[in-house]
Amino acid sequence: MTATCRIDIPLLRGPVPLSHLALRTFIQSGDRAVDATCGNGGDTLLLAELVGPRGKVWAFDIQQQAVSRTLARLEEAGLAERVELHAAGHERMPEHIIDGVAAVVFNLGYLPGGERTIITRPETTLAALEHSLGLLLPGGIVAVTVYPGHAGGSQERELIETWAAGLAPRCFYCWRMAQMNSSSAAPYFILIQKAA
Amino acid sequence: MTATCRIDIPLLRGPVPLSHLALRTFIQSGDRAVDATCGNGGDTLLLAELVGPRGKVWAFDIQQQAVSRTLARLEEAGLAERVELHAAGHERMPEHIIDGVAAVVFNLGYLPGGERTIITRPETTLAALEHSLGLLLPGGIVAVTVYPGHAGGSQERELIETWAAGLAPRCFYCWRMAQMNSSSAAPYFILIQKAA
After folding, report:
1. Among partner residues A18, A161, A195, which is closest to B180 by beta-carbon distance?
2. Could you report the per-residue pLDDT of A91-121, keeping only the tens digit for each?
3. pLDDT confidence bin for A2, thresholds 50/70/90
4. Is B1 in Cβ contact with A137 (below 8 Å)?
């Protein structure tokens, strides 16, 4: 074995580490970014760190419980002032954001630890994805973690896959990243980049 | 639009930029790495840069023409002394490498600008992939660009996909990354990471 000490190697155990790796790669200090589904605030916190003191994050969630949890985490980390939180569905993104953004993150399905019948809905998810593409800077990304396993998940997956397959290949580089040694119901990751 | 100047954003136009992004993420200065198919030397050159002056690269190609081109590029960049080149099939990797490596790169198919009937063969590719897994450090990766479009390519794809699907999920995180808005014959990327 080599004597080299290898530090902070990310481990790609599932789609969320992959999504975080993409965010770290494509977001720079001073950028603007959107968390379309803030949930327990994990992605929002990472975005707030990555955009730095001159950047800005918008975060949305239809559940007040999620927004409150996210706010608490941001305050604990001293990063709340970088983030504009909205207790609203992500399809309402265009009412709040007019500027070009470097990244929009989606983590679909239900709120972990919350009410499992409250899930992202295919129609509003698709509307929010469409809005997101329109907000991107050249080279900017939409990062989507898809959970086909829960009730309604496979319908949402089909709609997103059909939508993504129809994007113009010269305008958007659109990647599906799924584990090969896992069940087809396992969560996976979609990465869409706007061409420069 | 934001006034921020965003620099060096990688563009994910195809599987090769994605492979290079993975190499930049998982290889650190001082590491050891392998180019299993050095071809025109593009990947070898990147590996030689990434491993730095204390690192080492092994590069293989069954065609002398490929090895000569790669050597010329390395010499031009002043990086030849970091690389041990072998005009040999990648299935012979274990004869030359005994230490743990951070990354093994494969770029399958034929040599660009070379004889198109000389292609990577499913049996030797599979043997080399198996060897590669055994050489990896914890957290290390095998990065494979697959070209199903040429004659023999779809057979190679099937064999690799079946092999990858059988890897133990606790030992290897195994991702298939393909463009969603592209033909099924388009080249794609496989990223396998050894668990830590």
Report:
1. A161
2. 899 999 877 999 999 999 877 777 777 777 8
3. very low
4. yes
How far off is chain A from B65, nearest CA to CA, in Å?
A: 31
Shortest CA distance from A32: residue in chain B: B2
Residue matched to tokens 């949402």: A156
Which domains, from first to last, does chain A contain?
15-194 (3.40.50.150)
Q: Hey, what are B191's tokens?
A: 């990223």
Is residue A151 classed exposed, middle or buried when 0-12, 13-18 and 19+ CB atoms within 10 A define those classes?
A: exposed
Distance (Å, whole) CA A57 – CA A83? 5
Nearest-Cα distance to chain B for A18, in Å, is: 10
**What does the pLDDT read at residue A3?**
41
Q: Is A115 exposed, middle or buried (0-12, 13-18, 19+ CB in 10 A)?
A: exposed
pTM, two decimals, is 0.94
ipTM of the complex: 0.94
Residue in A closest to B32 by C-alpha:
A2
